[in-house]
Amino acid sequence: MNRLRTSFQQTTGQISGHGKRNVGVLKTAFAAVADEMASDQYGTGAIIEPFEQKFADVLGMDDAVFFPSGTMAQQVALRIWSDETDNRTVAYHPLCHLEIHEQDGLKELHPIETILVGAADRLMTLDEIKALPDIACLLLELPQREIGGVAPAFSELETISRYCRERGIRLHLDGARLFEMLPYYEKTAAEIAGLFDSIYISFYKGLGGIAGAILAGPAAFCQTARIWKRRYGGDLISLYPYIVSADYYYELRKDRMGQYYEQAKQLAEQFNALPGVHTTPEVPVSNMFHLHFDGQAADISPKLEQVQEETGLGFVGYLVDKDGYCSTEISVGDAYGELDQQTRDAGFARLRQAFS
Amino acid sequence: MNRLRTSFQQTTGQISGHGKRNVGVLKTAFAAVADEMASDQYGTGAIIEPFEQKFADVLGMDDAVFFPSGTMAQQVALRIWSDETDNRTVAYHPLCHLEIHEQDGLKELHPIETILVGAADRLMTLDEIKALPDIACLLLELPQREIGGVAPAFSELETISRYCRERGIRLHLDGARLFEMLPYYEKTAAEIAGLFDSIYISFYKGLGGIAGAILAGPAAFCQTARIWKRRYGGDLISLYPYIVSADYYYELRKDRMGQYYEQAKQLAEQFNALPGVHTTPEVPVSNMFHLHFDGQAADISPKLEQVQEETGLGFVGYLVDKDGYCSTEISVGDAYGELDQQTRDAGFARLRQAFS
Question: Where does this protein have coiled-coil stretches (chains A, B) (predicted)?
Fold first, then answer.
């Protein structure tokens, strides 16, 4: 499998991502920033406060708090809603980030119980939400990343939101890829966030920053979130390396999400036309999808390595074995747009040859 | 009080610190780093792994883990020792960072009880340690920052260490300012760390980095610490902005600690010669001390502002009222060495005039 990664890294162009995650990402973001700009200082100062207010405005919320990570931000959000409703139970999708990527941080650090809603291979349904016992908070992720980036229709979100408000259930949005969803919904970030009580967004997914997250919500919620940020050790004396880069790449890429979305649909169509290859969703609703090959990684990898070595075009950097097939994730970013048509066509032609 | 801060910030030279905390600190550290250097990736990669090993070696420990903050690192250390000894009680000084600066994170996030050892205005004694009930871990801070930067003799540390080992009490070092203590002890970092089971060091105190911390200890301890780092949301996809700068300023300043220490003693002596002014400790044991003025901040501030405005030399950026006096903290860094003798002499002459 390392050979596949190496062959991907050695390509001169890639269908996914924004290019390499290297120190150049930082240096580019800081190139035009004056040395004299003062650091933030434990959450205060001109580098952080207007930035937080900007994202409060973008999301149509009272206030917003910059966190070093989404892991920290979302645990804090669920704890605050749990305390506020005096209810120790929260609910989310079986493949929620908190359930599978955080070493059970939520449950190890807080007196919180979780309920997994619905099945791992699809979105949760309104009926499943209605069948839940009394909960403090329901977390929805848009798009549901671990199943390829799938999302409910906006009208369904409205129905879920209405139901939760009627029942006093706080609705939190894992909006790690919220901006990536806007072209599909044809809504503003604030219009989507408006259906939720709190929201987290990430700066290093489609936006391609270095790291960091915003947690936005009502004023009192954010005030309490700042206390928890201190408790977690997330209130660093200086967060500006992440903030400056987050702002730089947000401004650079926020208006490119429609382009990434169209390119993702185009790419998925090309993959789905190959024998033994398919994507989920079949038609992407954001810049991402999962790409599946019939067969096991041990058999598929050498074919992909050969194509990548011959064409210089990077398709796949890793494969995970599933039941009878193997999978990877594609997230379209700037790299795809930097390819010329001829390189793309030649790459797919060679891929078709390898998989026929 | 804001006028005092402003007058300090507008001076052209300062007796404490390393100069302004601004974006230039980052840019300087990255100036010689190639754009192509790959980011760390969730704790792995060439930018973080050799760095962690380097500090494991510096501290003579099996392993070391880079954390975004000391707050996170130390809570994790205490939790691990608590779990390992199956004992929910830890003990530390009444003015320990965990007790007064972390919004009770340790107690809010973990099932841990704390015992405050001794009195707030002095170091804890061996007898007080011996009088403790059964505890998982004792945390010592070197130097004890909140009382001016005071530290026990090395022989006393050895005695405490021996006692704790005999009793199965884990001994953790808050070594935020460990490197600053080495000239006084005339020991290596590893010789001091060797008395402890685990140790945290900070990169933005005397070293003057941007942020970040190392937690070092036995191999199994560090392995568990990495799990807790993930749980806390401290296992960022990219921590290199802090790591690269930490390494840069460590290399730049690690051999200057003796100089800062001598300068701190010299400065304290000059302050103690002024009427109505004294320092704690009277003779510093590191680069830091607390500086006290008889009277209240409202009366002292205007005098200091005037001296700072007239001389262009920054002595004090803030004052905190105590009982009959007011105080500030001095930490000697590069800024002091950049002053010429004439500026220093003229500054102290003017200060003497103001306080006579």
Answer: none
Q: Is residue A1 scored above 80 in pLDDT? A: no
Q: Which residues from B are below 8 Å from A70, CB to CB?
A: 233
Q: What angle do CA A50, A54, A56 make, to 5 degrees?
A: 115
In angstroms, what CA-CA distances link A173 with A205, A321, B282?
16, 30, 55
The interface residues of chain B toward chain A in range 90-109, judged by CB-CB distance below 8 A, are 102-105, 108-109
**The pLDDT of residue A112:** 98
Q: How many CA atoms lie within 13 A of A95 on its CB side?
A: 15
Of A30, A104, A109, which has the smallest distance from its Cβ to B23's Cβ? A30
Q: Residue B1 — very low, low, confident or very high, per pLDDT cuts 50/70/90?
A: low
Residue A241 is nearest to which of B26, B67, B233, comparing CB atoms?
B26
User: ipTM more than 0.85?
Assistant: yes
> How far apart are the C-alpha atoms of A13 and A347, rounded to whole Å?
11
Q: DSSP 3-state assignment of A320?
A: strand
The structural domains of chain B, ordered by start, are 3-19+256-355 (3.90.1150.10), 40-237 (3.40.640.10)
Q: Taking the CA of residue B304 as centre, how many other CA atoms within 13 Å lie in the half-sphere pointing to its CB?
A: 30
CA distance A112 to A24: 41
Contact by Cβ (8 Å): B123, B150: yes
Cα–Cα distances in angstroms (integers) from residue B159 to residues A226, B126, B129, B195, B233, in the given order: 41, 8, 11, 9, 37
Q: Taking chain A, what is the end-to-end CA distance rounded to the nearest angstrom?
A: 22
> Sign of the C-alpha dihedral, residues B261, B262, B263, B267?
positive
Q: For residue B349, give the amino acid letter.
A: A
Residue B284 has a CB neighbour count (10 Å cut-off) of: 29
Which helix (H) or strand (E) covers residue B310, if one does?
Answer: helix B297-311
| A 72-91 → B contacts, CB under 8 A | 72-73, 75
Which residue shows structure tokens 């199956």? B86
Cα gap A163→A117, rounded to integer Å? 16
B210 to chain A: which residues are within 8 Å by CB?
A: 39, 237-238, 240-241
**The token pair that represents B350 in the structure block:** 């003017």
Taking the C-alpha atoms of residue B177 and residue A294, their distance in angstroms, rounded to an integer, is 57
How far, in Å, are A312, B130, B156, B167 from residue B162 at the CA level? 62, 12, 10, 9
B54 by Cβ neighbours in 10 Å (0-12 / 13-18 / 19+) ranks as: middle
Length of chain A: 356
Amino acid (1-letter code) at residue A217: G
pLDDT tens for each residue of A179-232: 999 999 999 999 999 999 999 999 999 999 999 999 999 999 999 999 999 999
| pLDDT value for B2 | 86
B12 has a pLDDT exceeding 90: yes
Please indicate whether, in this complex, the C-beta atoms of B210 and A241 are within 8 angstroms of each other: yes
